[in-house]
């Protein structure tokens, strides 16, 4: 978790720690995040974005599920070739324009 201004714990870290403590005390798992309109948009656009990447780079991304190595795991969107990885982000247009402007 990131540190806050001045090097102390960030508000996000404190909130997360309190949620974990609450789960430990009650024995109940907190409500899982179910997403929102932005995540749904990303899920809808991901196949098209993957296909465009494949076309532009002349590659064949291989979809994968959750990967685990010991206690650590991740869920990349695709593998590309023998050592590549694809993580698709479908930014809102005004945010993508900012990225393009900033280089």
Q: Please, could you describe this protein's structure?
A:
About 0% of the residues are buried. The strands form two sheets. Strands 1-4-5 form a three-stranded antiparallel sheet, with no helix packed on it. The protein has a two-stranded antiparallel ribbon with strand order 2-3. It has helices at about 10-25, 35-55, 95-100, and strands at about 60-65, 65-70, 70-75, 80, 85. The protein folds into two domains: about 1-30, no CATH class; about 35-100, no CATH class. With about 100 residues, it is α+β, with helices and mostly antiparallel strands.
Descriptors:
single chain; 103 residues; alpha+beta; 2 domains; two-stranded antiparallel sheet; 5 strands
Please write out the topology:
Blueprint: H1 11-26, H2 37-57, E1 62-63, E2 67-69, E3 72-74, E4 78-80, E5 84-86, H3 93-102
Antiparallel strand pairs: 1-4, 2-3, 4-5
- Number of discrete domains: 2
- The topology string of helices and strands comes to HHEEEEEH
Q: What is the CA-based Rg, rounded? A: 18 Å
Q: State the major sheet.
A: 3 strands, antiparallel
Query: What's the β-strand tally?
Result: 5
Q: In percent, how helical is the residue content?
A: 40-55%
Widest sheet: strand order?
Answer: 1-4-5
Give the strand content: 5-15%
If helices are DSSP runs of H or I spanning 4 or more residues, what is the number of helices?
3
Overall average residue pLDDT: 90
> What overall form do the CA principal axes indicate?
extended
User: How does the helix and strand content classify structurally?
Assistant: alpha+beta
Unreliable stretches covering 5 or more consecutive residues: none
**Separation of termini?**
27 Å
